[in-house]
């Protein structure tokens, strides 16, 4: 299976099960979780099922294109199912069968892996899914994001599509993967890896990146002050990438590290809190209108207790109507 | 009729360690609930796999026994009006206990004055079937998971989402709902091997429409029915199967599977149906230190290392699948590829590290915080290393020890340790050797982390032992100085372990006078960096308590340990020798010397100058003094000899106190003084061994 066919097949599989096929976010991010379609949509009581490919940059993992398994950027295929269906594991295993990973031929296991993103103030429990010892998917039940307790809970599935495809193509080197009939992954990606490794490890100007970080942070605060949640969150994404780049450059000492993570987390937290409030004011528009109004009323009634409590109150108001809501699967 | 109970919670994959803990705790929790519910039962056991927790109760009574009890109410004077009729309080009591007014009795109640109203209550025992739903719900909800979660719209929490419940009493379903599930008799077999599994992705995938379900008849055939669906539900049986598989792989490859008990414990709980498989890797990876290879295999992949007959690591591994596959060679190749990628990374880290020097790493340690509360100038690992060096110098450490102290934490800044934290010290040893350091220095870098746990190996050289105690003492003094001493069972900085480690090392080395020196040196080194230990009493007590623990673990009765450590404890070798000899003190001697100690205490006998010779007059006094002098004269040094004296003079001491003996506290102050002096001189000889007042009645 060509890598692009893997993307098509997974997209079709999840679209058939009720997912919106979103598109990647056009900002540098370290993981699909940063995509507003995940980080913001998991908040509040609105159901949401989506899948998308996200180009994910991990500057510190860069290896100048020399390592067959590690790279400074790769593609994640991410699925978010909110609420998590009770049979989500079965759905996931079906998706593996669809792309040609048959549990009758492979040793598939769910191995404990608790996920935490200190920069996003988010955590969840779940597994890494192993196929013959190889981690092919990160499977997480989100419990908290931006410091807000999540109800309903989102199941997030993140497929490492290069690794899966290496399996399917029986290929030992990521750069030899066939993207389609004619083009290899290496032809598309190797030069980028070489140049960006050089950039991140050798040429990135820390003073510039530090200054950018500060600017993003100021912008985030200012934009939240004027009620522009989405642009504000974009500044948070950018600051996170600036931090990752500086970290790869070795420009952040171990003691400073925690402080920078805390600054990104503060932006993520403020954005998340503002986002839930904004959705409430809109009447949680992804809910059917009447239920959305019910949730909005519950939110407003509990607003004095803070966003976390109000979001839970809104969700509890929706619970009696769960049968009327769209579901994935 | 008593019947067997089966309760199974079907779950998404439970983490291995949490599963082991839950299975270990479940039987006692259930037994406690059954006891509280007054339900008689036979054996209780827990079984489970990553996808299920089950408890089976044999011969569970079908009902509670009836209860006959007497309930004590208010005083009779309050329950009855003067005319004999019931007051409001009396009526309330009768109503509350469901007894008629004329069934109330007036009685005397133990421990109370006057008459009280007593109701004889007869409670008909409840039916087990009716009691079980609540009891089992509480059992399920009460399992203490280190981390638990919510799922879907539910606010129930559990370790992972609950998928089904089975509750059967004597083969009949117990009506019970919990975590969004209704208990029945259906369980799911192995995820991929259970008969009836619908594999077509086109089929509806809601759990109830998928295959893999099997019906259970009851507790008796639970394990058997699951086995038929490729689930080995008993962890002990899984362990046997895995051991058999590993033995098979060893035979096949003419190698041995390297023992790894912790890994085996984990693997037992990683799947429902274990099947062994082996694979190999490029021998060139064995050029990196073996520990990296083994760690990469075990921590990331749960592979067992294999070795030849001489114990040398081979380029092979053994691992355990959780299913049966069509072609094991496919899985083998997959596992080999994963390992190759990991080993390539390990090789990369090792090569990167080789480009760095210890000086560069040590410089980085100034940016790694050891303990923020120590404050600027003392809080980094770099600061700690400088202190360790100072302490080792103060203890007169040889150049090798000082060098090892200076390098002991450097590898924390290496990429290999960054990737495999459990290799701290091990990588330091390798890198030190590669950098041309002496073996003793390289060895001490690794061994200063030893002992790594209870009963683990201690540092093998004097150099390593010095650095090990210096490092630990620095941690202890530092933490106590800034108020981070352990409270209750919480010991986040491992201070108890650190203190025990110091004692074990001192004991094994026979370092009798080192404790005080290393303590003072650590205090001084921290003070030089601005951290003052205001009060050393708490830390002294902490150390004494740990030494007491070591003695007690060695079999010394707790009271004897207290007696031995009461006066002086800083020399652990001496303390241990005294404790060992205490075991030989006979019961009578314990009694009589305890008495002497108490008499001397009461009489404030310290005033008697011990230099003065006693002048015994009465025959029993003379006999005791002569026996003591004679025994002492021929004895050699040592606690054993001292105890011999004690045993030898025991009859004379006894005679001194016996009927026909003397009264110490004679009304005549001169006589009294002489007798006290006699006892004081004798007791003084023995109190070095222990404080007899605290000694137990027998050893």
What does this protein structure show overall?
By secondary structure, chain A is α+β, with helices and mostly antiparallel strands. Helix content of chain A is 46%, strand content 18%. Chain A is built from ten helices and nine strands. In chain A, a hairpin with a 4-residue loop joins strand 5 and strand 6. The longest helix of chain A has 28 residues. Chain B is flat. Chain B has a five-stranded antiparallel sheet, with helices on one face. Chain B has a four-stranded antiparallel sheet with strand order 13-15-16-14. A three-stranded antiparallel sheet of chain B has the order 4-6-5. Helix content of chain B is 47%, strand content 13%. Chain B contains 26 helices and 16 strands. Chain B is α+β, with helices and mostly antiparallel strands and 699 residues long. At the A-B interface, helix 3, strand 4, strand 6 and strand 7 of A face helix 9 of B.
Q: Tags for this entry?
A:
heterodimer; A: 329 residues; 9 strands; B: 699 residues; alpha+beta; five-stranded antiparallel sheet; 47% helix
Roughly how much helix do the residues of chain B carry, as a percent range? Answer: 40-55%
Category from helices, strands and their pairing of chain A: alpha+beta
Q: What's the story with the biggest beta sheet of chain B?
A: 5 strands, antiparallel
- The count of DSSP E runs of length 2 or more, i.e. the number of strands of chain A, is 9
- Low-pLDDT parts of chain B are 199-205
Topology overview:
The complex is a heterodimer of chains A (329) and B (699).
Chain A: H1 3-16, E1 20-21, H2 36-39, E2 48-57, E3 73-82, H3 88-98, E4 108-112, E5 115-117, E6 122-131, E7 134-145, E8 148-149, E9 155-160, H4 161-168, H5 185-203, H6 206-225, H7 229-248, H8 254-281, H9 289-302, H10 307-318
Parallel strand pairs in A: 1-2
Antiparallel strand pairs in A: 2-3, 3-9, 4-6, 5-6, 6-7, 7-8, 7-9
Helix pairs in contact in A: 6-7, 6-8, 7-8, 9-10
Chain B: E1 3-11, H1 16-36, E2 44-49, E3 52-60, E4 67-75, H2 76-79, H3 88-96, E5 104-108, E6 115-123, H4 128-141, E7 162-169, E8 172-173, E9 177-178, E10 181-182, E11 186-188, E12 213-215, H5 222-228, H6 235-253, E13 256-257, H7 261-268, E14 275-280, H8 290-301, E15 304-307, E16 313-321, H9 328-354, H10 358-365, H11 381-394, H12 399-407, H13 415-419, H14 426-434, H15 439-447, H16 462-481, H17 495-509, H18 514-528, H19 537-553, H20 558-565, H21 572-582, H22 587-602, H23 619-634, H24 639-648, H25 650-657, H26 669-686
Antiparallel strand pairs in B: 1-3, 1-7, 2-3, 4-6, 5-6, 7-8, 9-10, 11-12, 13-15, 14-16, 15-16
Helix pairs in contact in B: 6-7, 8-9, 11-12, 11-16, 11-18, 12-15, 12-16, 14-15, 15-16, 16-17, 16-18, 17-19, 19-20, 20-21, 22-26, 23-24, 23-25
């Amino acid at each position: 299976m060509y890598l692009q066919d893997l993307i098509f097949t997974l997209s079709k599989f999840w679209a058939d099960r009720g997912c919106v096929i979103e598109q990647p976010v056009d900002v540098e991010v370290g993981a699909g979780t940063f995509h507003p379609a995940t980080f913001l949509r998991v908040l509040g009581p609105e159901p949401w099922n989506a899948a998308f490919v996200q180009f994910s940059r991990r500057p510190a993992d860069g290896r100048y294109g020399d390592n067959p398994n590690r790279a400074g950027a790769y593609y994640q295929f991410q699925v978010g199912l909110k609420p998590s269906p009770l049979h989500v594991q079965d759905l996931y295993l079906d998706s593996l069968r669809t792309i040609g990973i048959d549990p009758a031929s492979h040793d598939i296991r769910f191995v404990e892996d608790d996920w935490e993103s200190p920069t996003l103030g988010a955590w969840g429990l779940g597994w890494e899914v192993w196929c013959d010892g190889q981690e092919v998917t990160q499977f997480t039940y989100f419990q908290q994001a931006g410091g807000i307790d999540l109800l309903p809970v989102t199941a997030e599935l993140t497929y490492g599509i290069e690794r899966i495809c290496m399996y399917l193509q029986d290929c030992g080197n990521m750069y030899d993967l066939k993207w389609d009939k004619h083009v290899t992954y290496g032809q598309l990606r190797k030069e980028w890896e070489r140049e960006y490794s050089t950039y991140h490890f050798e040429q990135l100007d820390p003073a510039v990146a530090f200054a950018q970080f500060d600017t993003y942070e100021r912008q985030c605060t200012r934009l939240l002050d004027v009620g522009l949640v989405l642009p504000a969150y974009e500044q948070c994404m950018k600051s996170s990438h600036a931090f990752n780049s500086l970290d790869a450059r070795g420009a952040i000492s171990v003691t400073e590290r925690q402080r920078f993570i805390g600054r990104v987390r503060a932006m993520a937290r403020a954005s998340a809190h503002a986002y839930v409030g904004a959705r409430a004011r809109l009447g949680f528009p992804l809910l059917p209108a009447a239920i959305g109004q019910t949730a909005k009323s519950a939110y407003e009634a509990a607003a004095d207790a803070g966003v976390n409590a109000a979001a839970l109150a809104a969700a509890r108001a929706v619970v009696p109507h769960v049968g009327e809501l769209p579901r994935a699967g | 009729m008593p019947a067997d109970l089966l309760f199974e919670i079907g779950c998404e994959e439970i983490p291995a360690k949490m599963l082991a803990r839950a299975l270990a705790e479940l039987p006692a929790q259930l037994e406690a609930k059954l006891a509280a519910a007054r339900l008689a039962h036979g054996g209780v056991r827990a079984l489970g796999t990553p996808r299920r927790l089950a408890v089976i109760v044999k011969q569970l009574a079908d009902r509670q026994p009836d209860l006959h009890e007497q309930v004590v109410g208010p005083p009779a004077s309050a329950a009855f009006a003067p005319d004999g009729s019931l007051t409001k309080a009396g009526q309330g009591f009768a109503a509350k206990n469901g007894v008629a007014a004329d069934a109330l009795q007036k009685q005397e109640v133990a421990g109370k004055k006057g008459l009280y109203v007593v109701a004889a209550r007869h409670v008909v025992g409840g039916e087990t079937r009716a009691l079980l739903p609540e009891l089992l719900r509480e059992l399920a909800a009460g399992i203490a998971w280190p981390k638990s979660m919510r799922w879907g719209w539910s606010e129930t929490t559990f370790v992972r989402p609950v998928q089904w419940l089975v509750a059967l009493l004597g083969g009949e379903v117990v009506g019970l709902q919990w975590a969004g599930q209704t208990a029945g008799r259906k369980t799911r077999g192995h995820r991929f091997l259970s008969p009836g599994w619908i594999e077509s992705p086109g089929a509806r995938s809601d759990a109830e429409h998928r295959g893999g379900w099997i019906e259970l008849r009851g507790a008796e055939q639970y394990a058997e029915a699951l086995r038929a669906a490729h689930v080995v539900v008993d962890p002990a049986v899984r362990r046997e199967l895995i051991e058999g598989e590993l033995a098979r792989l060893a035979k096949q490859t003419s190698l041995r599977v390297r023992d790894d008990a912790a890994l085996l414990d984990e693997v037992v709980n990683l799947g429902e149906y274990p099947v062994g498989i082996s694979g190999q890797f490029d021998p060139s990876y064995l050029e990196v230190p073996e520990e990296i290879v083994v760690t990469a295999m075990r921590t990331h992949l749960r592979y067992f290392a294999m070795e030849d007959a001489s114990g040398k690591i081979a380029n092979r591994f053994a691992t355990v699948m959780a299913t049966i596959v069509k072609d094991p060679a496919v899985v083998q190749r997959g596992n080999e590829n994963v390992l190759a990628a990991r080993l390539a990374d390990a090789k990369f880290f090792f090569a990167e590290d080789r480009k760095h020097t210890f000086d560069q790493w040590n410089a980085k340690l100034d940016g790694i915080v050891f303990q923020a509360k120590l404050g600027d100038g003392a809080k980094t690992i770099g600061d700690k290393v400088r202190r360790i060096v100072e302490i080792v110098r103060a203890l007169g450490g040889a150049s090798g020890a000082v060098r090892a102290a200076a390098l002991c934490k450097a590898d924390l800044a290496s990429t290999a340790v960054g990737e495999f934290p459990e290799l701290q010290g091990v990588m330091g040893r390798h890198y030190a050797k590669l950098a041309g350091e002496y073996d003793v220095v390289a060895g001490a870098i690794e061994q200063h982390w030893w002992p790594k746990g209870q009963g683990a190996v201690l540092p093998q050289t004097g150099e390593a032992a010095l650095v090990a105690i210096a490092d630990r003492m620095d941690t202890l003094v530092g933490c106590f100085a800034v108020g981070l001493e352990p409270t209750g069972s919480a010991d986040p900085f491992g201070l108890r372990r650190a203190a025990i480690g110091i004692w074990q090392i001192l004991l094994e080395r026979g370092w009798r006078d080192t404790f005080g020196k290393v303590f003072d040196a650590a205090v001084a080194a921290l003070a030089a960096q601005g951290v003052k230990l205001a009060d050393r009493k708490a830390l002294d007590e902490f150390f004494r308590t740990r030494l007491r623990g070591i003695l007690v673990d060695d079999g010394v009765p707790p009271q004897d340990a207290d007696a031995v450590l009461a006066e002086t404890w800083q020399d652990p070798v001496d303390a241990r020798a005294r404790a060992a000899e205490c075991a030989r003190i006979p019961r009578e001697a314990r009694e009589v010397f305890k008495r002497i100690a108490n008499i001397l205490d009461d009489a404030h006998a310290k005033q008697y100058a011990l230099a003065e010779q006693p002048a015994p007059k009465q025959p029993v006094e003379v006999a005791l003094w002569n026996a003591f002098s004679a025994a002492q004269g021929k004895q050699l040094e040592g606690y054993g000899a001292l105890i011999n004296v004690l045993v030898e003079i025991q009859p004379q001491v006894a005679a001194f106190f016996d009927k026909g003996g003397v009264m110490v506290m004679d009304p005549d102050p001169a006589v009294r003084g002489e007798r006290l002096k006699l006892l004081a001189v004798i007791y003084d000889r023995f109190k070095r061994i222990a404080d007899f007042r605290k000694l137990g009645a027998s050893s």
